Amino acid sequence: MLTVQNLSHDPFYNQAFEEYIYQTYQDDDIFLLWQNSPAVVVGSYQNICREVHVEALRQRGIPVVRRISGGRSCRGQAARVLGKRPRRPVRSRSVRHPL
Questions:
Q1: d(C-alpha 90, C-alpha 72), whole Å
Q2: 7 CB contacts (<8 Å, ≥6 apart)?
Q3: pLDDT, tens digit, for every residue of 90-99?
Q4: Which one of 15, 35, 49, 82 has the fewest beta carbons within 10 angstroms of its own beta carbon?
């Protein structure tokens, strides 16, 4: 199992780093551990305007970041440590290569 501790707190970098790790090590079980500065992270299938109040977040300087996986929105705080369970990512061909 590949274990990675990402020391960056930048939510945009962290999402890009996660995608890079999963694309580069497709045949490995991966455990990622990281911490974001305040941000709202939304799933790949979510409508951002329905999930969050974009203008209120903009006024507070809190970015909205889209992740490559599905799932619900989550609010990240500086004191919150995030991790991914060891597993191989499941990729949907329709999302990665639209018709």
A1: 17
A2: 34
A3: 444 444 444 3
A4: 49
Q: Which phi-psi region, left, alpha or beta, contains residue 63 (left: φ > 0; alpha: ψ -120 to 50)?
A: beta
d(CA 80, CA 48): 22
Rounded CA-CA distance 52/74 in Å is 10
- Reduced to 3 states (helix: H, G, I; strand: E, B; else coil), residue 13 is helix
Which ranges of the chain does DSSP label H, i.e. alpha helix?
11-24, 48-51, 54-60, 93-96
* Cα–Cα distance for residue pair 99/66, rounded to 1 Å: 21
Q: What's the distance, Cα to Cα, between the start and end of the chain in Å?
A: 34
pLDDT single digits (tens) 73-92? 565 555 455 555 545 544 44
